[in-house]
Amino acid sequence: AARMFAPSRELIEEYAEAVMTSGGKEEKNIKIINEIKNYLFTNYLRREESDFPPRVMLLFFEGDNVIEELKRVVGHITKISIGETIRGTYGDYIEKKGRIAYFEPAVLIGSDEEGIEQELKIWAKYSKTDGGILEKIISYPPEIKLEKTLVLIKPDSFQELSSKVGNIIDRFSQTGLFIIGAKVIHMGVREAEEFYAPIKERLAEKMKGKLLKEIRSS
Predict the structure, then answer these.
(1) What residues pair up with 58 in beta bridges, in sequence order?
(2) Element (H or E) spanning 94, and its range?
(3) Quick one: which H or E segment has residue 30?
């Protein structure tokens, strides 16, 4: 599943509390957890009243050993391996004289099953009020003619172990446009027929050539 959020202060307060509760009692853990809390309040909420709220994309994964697999892909929060993980590419952690001088985790993930369950309940609680299609949260200059459009990332992009989906989203981010909604859809035949009805003839013409080519080569 996927969902866009513009988190409220109430959501971030509850989420930060859950992160701190599941972070452990060791001194080193407490230091990092406090830094995560500061990061949340600094980066997940608007800094000035005139700013538009930051947008957050929540991704929900399932699979064999999914918690540990995500930890491997995301990387350690302090031991950064340059280029080998998400945090190795987009994150940073710098300590000077025992103090954290710079902290950028890039993404935040759960650490264990119990903590993740609690964190998901919090995001679900605010799903309707803070999530969904994030309309009217971005201020545009008056001369802008505001339009909206839809992009479908086709199913086969998700069926292979590759960075294809991420690269596609990255290209959209480079346009300067704003992603205001995201959803994973399991489309049935009836829904597909309804969705593609306006371009049915164009699709049929496009697929005809491909089918003829396959028939001739078989």
Answers:
(1) 3
(2) strand 92-96
(3) helix 27-43
Q: Per-residue confidence at 69, pLDDT binned at 50, 70, 90?
A: very high
Spatial separation of the C-alpha atoms in residues 36 and 77, rounded to whole Å? 10
HEC string for 81-116 = CCCCCHHHHHCEEEEECCEEEEEECCCCCCCCHHHH
- Measure the CA–CA gap between 127 and 56, rounded to whole angstroms: 12
Give the three-state DSSP class for 8.
coil
**Checking DSSP bridges between strand 2-5 and strand 92-96, what pairing results, if any?**
unpaired
pTM of the model: 0.81
186: Cα within 13 Å, side-chain hemisphere: 1
SS3 14: helix
Contact by Cβ (8 Å): 65, 76: no
What value does the mean pLDDT take over residues 166-191?
A: 88
**Sign of the alpha-carbon torsion through 80, 82, 88, 94:** positive
Under a CB-based contact definition with an 8 Å cutoff, are residues 5 and 123 in contact? yes
Q: Which pair of tokens denotes residue 61? A: 């994964």
Cα(153)–Cα(150) distance, integer angstroms: 10
Rounded Cα–Cα distance for residues 14 and 123 (Å) = 9
